[in-house]
Specification:
By secondary structure, this protein is mostly helical. Helix content is 69%, strand content 8%. The protein is built from eight helices and three strands. It has helices at residues 2-8, 12-27, 30-35, 39-91, 95-105, 118-125, 151-159, 161-167; strands at 110-114, 129-131, 144-149. It has a three-stranded antiparallel sheet with strand order 1-3-2. Helix 2 (12-27) crosses helix 4 (39-91) and helix 7 crosses helix 8. The chain is elongated, with a radius of gyration of 30 Å. The mean pLDDT is 91.
């Protein structure tokens, strides 16, 4: 039983090699098998070779299906995320638009902003802006740190005429 579990844990490359090798042993014409002096081996262990072929090929097919399904799912979620981001940028107004416009006009798209401001926290929550760095020396009387505008925001604004007009680009 332990050998079967170990076989199932083999990396896909090894399983692929086993699948190809066992498939060749099973399906090559007898003339080629005789030239390789594998006739008696195939006759003696044909059943085991067949099981190895079926199991390794099945596992490889499952791996392939999982990889393809994951890529499709990722593409779907990325498409939904892009739509949601654009919808969010089109929906916001007031101080949020002013803050994004301010960051767009900065040469590095970075500015000192108050850490506990509601507008800053909302834009940070939706990954429109993020802190520039992970450690900051902060004056606790007036806590401010550098925030930067995410590159996707700039790309979406520059690529959409409605957003360009809204943010004054």
């Amino acid at each position: 039983m332990k050998n079967i579990v170990d076989f199932l844990k083999l990396p896909p490359r090894i399983l692929g090699a086993l699948s190809v090798a066992s498939g060749l042993l099973l399906f090559l014409p007898n003339a080629i098998i005789e030239k390789l002096y594998m006739t008696s081996f195939r006759d003696k262990y044909g059943f085991a070779i067949g099981i190895v072929f079926v199991v390794s090929t099945s596992i490889l097919v499952v791996f392939l299906v999982v990889i393809i399904a994951k890529k499709i799912k990722d593409k779907y979620y990325n498409k939904r995320l892009k739509k949601a981001r654009i919808a969010y940028l089109k929906r916001i107004d007031g101080n949020k638009v002013e803050l994004i416009r301010y960051l767009l006009n900065e040469s590095t798209h970075t500015a000192m902003l108050p850490m506990h401001d509601g507008v800053v926290l909302e834009l940070q929550h939706f990954y429109v802006i993020l802190p520039a760095g992970s450690t900051h020396a902060v004056n606790m009387a007036n806590p401010q740190i550098n925030y930067f505008l995410q590159p996707w925001v700039i790309e979406e604004i520059d690529g959409d005429p409605e957003l360009k007009a809204k943010f004054g680009r």
